[in-house]
Amino acid sequence: MVSAVDLEARRKAAELMRKMFSGVAEEIQREGRPVFVMPKRTLSNTIYDYKNKLLLLGPETLKRSFTDVNEARKFMQTVLMASIIYDSLVNNEYPTIRDLYYRGKHSISYRSSSGREVHENTWDEQKESDSVIRDLEVFLNVLREELLILSKEKGKVVGNLVIRSGDDTIDLSRMGHGAYSIEPTPDLIEFKDVDAEYVLVVEKDAVFQQLHRYGFWKKNKAILITSAGQPDRATRRFLRRLSDEYNLPVYILTDSDPYGFYIYSVFKIGSITLSYESERLATPRAKFIGVMMTDVFGDDVFREMLKDKDSKKELGSIARGLEKLAKKKPYLTEAERRNYIIKAKQRDLERAVELIGYNVADVCLDNAEYKNKLKKKEGLTGYPWFQTPEWVRELCVFFKTLSKLEIEAMASKGLKFLADHYIPEKISTGDWID
Amino acid sequence: MVSAVDLEARRKAAELMRKMFSGVAEEIQREGRPVFVMPKRTLSNTIYDYKNKLLLLGPETLKRSFTDVNEARKFMQTVLMASIIYDSLVNNEYPTIRDLYYRGKHSISYRSSSGREVHENTWDEQKESDSVIRDLEVFLNVLREELLILSKEKGKVVGNLVIRSGDDTIDLSRMGHGAYSIEPTPDLIEFKDVDAEYVLVVEKDAVFQQLHRYGFWKKNKAILITSAGQPDRATRRFLRRLSDEYNLPVYILTDSDPYGFYIYSVFKIGSITLSYESERLATPRAKFIGVMMTDVFGDDVFREMLKDKDSKKELGSIARGLEKLAKKKPYLTEAERRNYIIKAKQRDLERAVELIGYNVADVCLDNAEYKNKLKKKEGLTGYPWFQTPEWVRELCVFFKTLSKLEIEAMASKGLKFLADHYIPEKISTGDWID
């Protein structure tokens, strides 16, 4: 009943594991000192490659030695997890990371050197077992999905795209009003035929439904994807593969707020703390098309601010290039703004500072109460890939107006407006942030 | 680009709206006293039909009169919302309830009788506009989806089932490793061909993925659905239609905890406060197959409790039939329980009392601290459809053990165990709760 694709993936993964662990096994049989060497998954060993817009793991490695008392526990956990995953592979199981946590969770009883009976748990929290799975991904240089580890999956897609998944060939342009729900192991998908000019990723499922139903992807020869909120790994990997293998431009459409900007950032770069994933899950060519703060407000407040010499000085090197930005006209009228805008919350501001750094908040934020609450974020420099004139402007307008806007507001102005005017115009005029 | 199905649905809905509002329009043109009469959506007008296991709206009605100063605002909101929905229908829009909120939100300015200029908002919160949409559903006797109002949609399905959606015919047995994501307007789906013996609904997407990948639905001739957590309206309506139109048994598999039991309850009966939806969204024939508390622990603690005469007396009429329940053996060993069980939280207990009533908690709960915290729930009688011997036993074991268990634990014991033993055995022996 199981697909041939899965059987082949299992065979390959099990073989890789045998190969990578054979050294350790031999060392144990020789009663030697077994040790793992793997890249360090630390912040200090994470490098942002400005040119290729990628997060990479640096050259630092760590050792896990069985005979070092400080490392024995981690060594045990690594071997235990590897054996559970290997068993799952050969027994046709499809565990989730939650399963792997449950499967490995037990007490090991032994006598200590002083003769006392000791009980030690393999792991207590799923946090611990998840971390071991990440170690193994880095050690084996595979994504966990290639080890047939499954997870829940929210991503959906429609468009002129034929894929092969499992034993089936599926035409994603023939999904009716529904959509194709992406599988949790997107590396096992084979793209058979793609006839599209770009990929549009919509953060919100409800807006995806509207655009789909309206025939947006047919009219515009687009592939339409939704992540239904924060993107999961499979949706990210699926997008990356589409973009790579067919050289397709990728546009991301989110709410106009720091959480939306962050979702874009996850698609494009990934997260600093999980940089080893980014190398394969992130889509460096993804562009943010909106909704921009400047689509809502234009950039007058921002240009006002630039006139102030002190402000510019305080922005420092980041201020270079700001004046060269083309002027932006808002898509919304004053009356529409009044009805559609939502007041920003404290946590939106905190997220904004995490993205752009405290400096921009300090210069652009006029509200003393909010500013005071942000003091604890002083010194934060933000993500390197947000340090561009375009993003400084976006976040500056955010700090000035303390407002946010949902994509739905653009659909409320009219689905025709969103589908036939806003999105196509932004794409055709290149009004995006890269 | 829009499907013929949608055009026809629009035409029908717009016609219905014209018909239902023509009386009001005429009354307004005559400068008379326009008034709406519609069923009351109140708790007191909600009836649980024990025989058919359905929540129904009772015979009480309410009037919304334009010339009554207390009702004028609600009258205005109803007419405003109806006109926005009507416009959307004729303009090929697919609004969400969020859109409808945005579209109608504005200030109405007028001079009061004293000559003062007054500004009144049509509505402030989405809560208000949502309530008006519900009124219209009841007034028109349709689901909002039939008015082409869309929403985000989480439900997925795979199985031997061919459907027609939009202009496409889709074979849901040919989805590869992915799945078919149900459309937000399930009444527009046409079921073409179903070859299945039952429907299995799995609460958790990750477990759905595992069973799908394992070939469960092929082996067992089942249709496999996941609600990915709390079921949304479209998933519920889709299930109801499948069950009705093909006379298929429906089994629900959730976590073993009061939230899981509640999810089952939403599928089967719906919610008391939205009973008007239940008439068409609920699936009365849905059965709970697990995970039961007694699948985890057996029912020894419960039988112990029954020996206590006082306890039985306190349970009152609910105690009748408890002794006739067939004895239950647990599926898990003591060691497995130790690794898999999660401690119940205060909010789990509160949810349990909402389902079964305070009385059962009072009798079965030994932990004094928890009991004390539940005092505020005293007097709660629970949902009528949970007042059965089987559910008293389940919740009693829950209160006794203060434990819960995820479906994943059953998959951790082995996907083979879950797919080839646990689920088929429970179905073939009739070990479910109806």
Automatic annotation (TrEMBL), chains A, B:
Signal peptide: none annotated. It catalyses: ATP-dependent breakage, passage and rejoining of double-stranded DNA. Pfam families: TOP6A-Spo11_Toprim, Topo_VI_alpha, TP6A_N. Keywords: ATP-binding, DNA-binding, Isomerase, Magnesium, Metal-binding, Nucleotide-binding, Topoisomerase. Its EC number is 5.6.2.2. Residues 153-195 form the Type II DNA topoisomerase VI subunit A all-beta domain. Residues 198-315, 370-427 form the Topoisomerase 6 subunit A/Spo11 TOPRIM domain. Mg(2+) binds at residues 203, 255. Residues 73-149 form the Spo11/DNA topoisomerase VI subunit A N-terminal domain. GO terms for molecular function: ATP binding; DNA binding; DNA topoisomerase type II (double strand cut, ATP-hydrolyzing) activity; magnesium ion binding. The active site is at 102 (o-(5'-phospho-dna)-tyrosine intermediate). InterPro entries: Spo11/TopoVI_A, Spo11/TopoVI_A_N, Spo11/TopoVI_A_sf, Topo_VI_alpha, TopoVI_A, TOPRIM_Topo6A/Spo11, WH-like_DNA-bd_sf. One of its GO terms (cellular component) is chromosome. GO terms for biological process: DNA replication; DNA topological change. Its cofactor is Mg(2+). Homodimer. Heterotetramer of two Top6A and two Top6B chains. PANTHER family: MEIOTIC RECOMBINATION PROTEIN SPO11 (PTHR10848:SF0). Relaxes both positive and negative superturns and exhibits a strong decatenase activity. Belongs to the TOP6A family. NCBIfam families: PRK04342.1-5. This is Type 2 DNA topoisomerase 6 subunit A. It comes from Desulfurococcus mucosus (strain ATCC 35584 / DSM 2162 / JCM 9187 / O7/1). The lineage of its organism: Archaea, Thermoproteota, Thermoprotei, Desulfurococcales, Desulfurococcaceae.
